[in-house]
Amino acid sequence: MAGSGETAEQFGEAIAIRIARREDVPAIVALFAADVLGGHGDTTDPDALADYLAAFDRISASPQDRLYVAELDGEMVGTFQTTLMVSMSGRGAASLNVEAVQTRADMRGRGIGEAMIRFAIAKALEAGATKVQLTSNLVRTDAHRFYRRLGFAQSHAGFKMKL
Questions:
Q1: Which pLDDT score is estimated for 55?
Q2: Average pLDDT of span 70-85
């Protein structure tokens, strides 16, 4: 769970990844609100903070979910979430879903995204998962190149329904 005692892990010289804390929520939200391609309607409006805190609490309470932040020299520069899922297909195989990967725009190209994804892969292996999966918005062509470079293959067509 997001509030568990998992410790930070270092990547490279100064990138540390740790479980997000409740006090990180405004900075995490700012990352999403600054994303012009996301289209999720995220906002730093103080009136919306309660919704984000409720989401954080729900994620923290889930034994399958983890919310992480990446720090560079003590400053938050990225975030991502993982969910461990077990499926009846594949003889009960577990997979780790990676969601909401975001690196601060001015920090891209410094290995932060790669550190976050490699961390997620390591967590998947620790949990005995047989695959790591994620989705990426079709307009994020730079992200698609990034994921392919890390060894991901595009394998499925995704479908969503707004409710």
A1: 97
A2: 95
Strand order through the sheet with 131-134:
9-11, 15-19, 65-72, 75-86, 94-103, 131-134
Q: What is the CA radius of gyration of the chain?
A: 16
Q: How far is CA 4 from CA 12, 98, 105, in A?
A: 24, 18, 28
The answer to whether 29 and 20 have CB atoms below 8 angstroms apart is no
On the question of pLDDT at 49 being above 90, the answer is yes
Cα–Cα separations (whole angstroms), residue 85 to 106, 141, 142, 152: 33, 27, 27, 18
Dist. CA 42–CA 96, nearest whole Å: 25
pTM over 0.70: yes
Tokens of 65: 């979910």
3-state secondary structure of 43: coil
Mean pLDDT computed over 43-47: 88
Given a contact cutoff of 8 angstroms between Cβ atoms, the answer to whether 102 and 79 are in contact is yes
Closest to 43 measured CA to CA, from 32, 27, 51: 32
| Tokens (6 digits) for 115 | 């550190």
The Cα 127–Cα 111 span in angstroms is 24
Owner of token pair 């190209």: 109
